[in-house]
D-isomer specific 2-hydroxyacid dehydrogenase
Amino acid sequence: MTIDNKLPYTVAFADELHADGIALARRLFQRVLLHTDPDYRDWIEEADGICNRAKVIPTADLKASKRLRVLSKQGVGVDTVDLKACREKGITVCNTPGINAEAVAELSLGLALSLSRRISELDRRARAGEVNVATTVMGHSLFGKTIGIVGMGNIGRQTAEKFKNACSCSVIAYDPYAPQEAWTASGKGGALPHTRVNTIEEMLGEVDILSLHLPLTPSTKGLVGRAMFDKMKKGAILLNASRGGIVDEQALYEALKSRTIYGAALDALETEPPTKEAYGTNLYTLPNVLITPHIGAATHEIQALSARVVVEQLSLLLTGQTIDNIVP
Ligand SMILES: O=CC(=O)O
């Protein structure tokens, strides 16, 4: 600590993080640089730590950094971080797994409800003054349906629980790496007798909803494509609130256009943020697609909490302490 009781470090915010995190950083650290500040570029010379959310920090900047020791990332996915460059520079990377889980699970349930009950479509049509829409349009119930979860980490497990508790859905799940408790225990008491399968293919013909909760890695890139859509039920919907690159978007477009599957709700796309050019092409033109701009964790509560954790973890690591959430 220095005379003003602040840690003698400069910390940069590369991205928009919740004001609670920034306020905490201002209380803890001697200098805080926001990406909107004119002197933000100083971070390369001066920052000991950097807080980030979704921005890709250029590899050249990481390599050029003079003092950077810790990159503290909000959220669980680290596909936007050049981990190799960080490793080579001795920069420790940490994230905030688990904190987002409830919010992403809530969104997944919301997307499924909106798609199957056609909520956003009918909202648009009601505003456009279409009459008798309520009597001429029908959706599908979620009650009693079967959801297939791919990836039983924190988010996949919460999603399973939400669909089961809210809509009495049966759960089939695939995750070769998840620990035993993922299959038998719920967070809120009571057993969750999920059916476990050894391959994704095994569940495809059974599920009404296929929900993806995986990281984007070389082995998951393009994992969900034509071969899988062809095996799904005609009435099935795909939910993706994880990462865009996991789904082959051209194959999805074709499956939706030909009604091989019923619909898709996507909070994650291969190109983010969705560009102006992309509107009006492919997926964006289809009525049976719902798109949200990667808002899985975008609640006031979760953003405030996880921004504070990002800063706390940064201060622990800069002061030589250890934490659980270090990314290997
Ligand atoms: O996308 C959000 C996250 O990585 O947690």
